[in-house]
Amino acid sequence: MGIFSKFKSAILSSLSFSKIDEELFEELEESLILSDVGVNVASAAVEQLRTRVRKEKLETEEQLKAALREILAAYLQVGEPTLAVNTRPSVVLFIGVNGVGKTTSIGKIAHRMKSEGKKVILCAGDTFRAAAADQLEIWSNRAGVDIVRQHEGADPGAVLFDALAAAKARNCDVVLCDTAGRLHNKQNLMNELAKMRKIIDREAPDSDRETLLVLDATTGQNGLIQARQFKETAGLTGIILTKLDGTAKGGIVIAIAQELGVPVKFVGLGEGIDDLKPFDAQEFVADMIG
Predict the structure, then answer these.
(1) Are 120 and 176 spatial neighbours (Cβ–Cβ below 8 Å)?
(2) 264-268 and 90-95 beta bridge pairing
(3) DSSP SS3 for 156
(4) Does the pLDDT of residue 80 top 90, yes or no?
(5) Which of 89, 119, 130, 250 has CB 3.0 to 4.6 Å from 167, enough for a Cys bridge?
């Protein structure tokens, strides 16, 4: 069983492979579009597949699937899929709209990093939403890591300043920083993140840093719109795609990689603390194709 076995996919399961002909290619393109890879990617992938069928004289269902897996996996080869957290401390900012699973993802990554032997501290930088710090503290307890927080309405930059100071004093490896789930088209998000970056530049100038956008896979093309706007305003080093187990539209992963050139670094496949997994393009495509 692959790590994506919970993913509701296998987009080719409903297709008939009695004959590799134009009708099959059209059905395949439609299935890819319905899985949210996007019209352009679906069209390009099927055109590449047509060419390979002709040149390599592919005849069987398994040959066709293998070729399609290779084509789609190549679309996912963008950026660096692993987190750059090699300095002490390293800083990871988590951004995204409310309700996508941002705080939960931070807790799960904290748990994963601690299990790998890293010393982690959480920064409750979402001081805007009522009880956001309380929710993050619950996760800090579950993961067994420290947290730095202040009162609701506090300056997020001040919380990050304290977290970086604590990380240096306690010799921590990684600071995982929550941010307010502001709407992606708001100027205050840009201002807040710019301020946070200045604080990191000043207090931890040589630190590795990541800015991860958390997206809900079930939102499909709306997730791509969010990613596009967040990339413009905040700059992104990676994507965390949550709730992939609840959708057949995981092709949005490919659409994001192709349009934005931003790698998916983690995917959420359930509610459990171990259900956030590092993204593996080959395994994902294998489960997606069936």
Answers:
(1) yes
(2) unpaired
(3) helix
(4) no
(5) 89
Q: Annotate 51-99 with DSSP letters as a single string.
A: HHHHHHT--SHHHHHHHHHHHHHHHT--S--S----SSSEEEEEE--TT
pLDDT of residue 185: 54
SS3 label, residue 127: coil
Residue 214, CA distances (Å) to 223, 225, 252, 267 in order: 9, 13, 13, 9
How many CA atoms, within 13 angstroms, populate the side-chain half-sphere of residue 120?
25
pLDDT for position 81: 84
Amino acid at 155: D
Give the predicted TM-score (pTM) of the model: 0.87
**Rounded Cα gap, residues 254 and 17, in angstroms:** 24
pLDDT value for 158: 94
More confident residue, 211 or 229: 211
3-state secondary structure of 148: strand
Q: Which residues lie closer than 8 Å to 264 by C-beta, 6 or more apart?
A: 76, 81, 238, 239, 240, 241, 253, 256, 257, 279
> ω before 81 within 30° of 0 (cis)?
no
Q: Which helix (H) or strand (E) covers residue 264, if one does?
A: strand 264-268
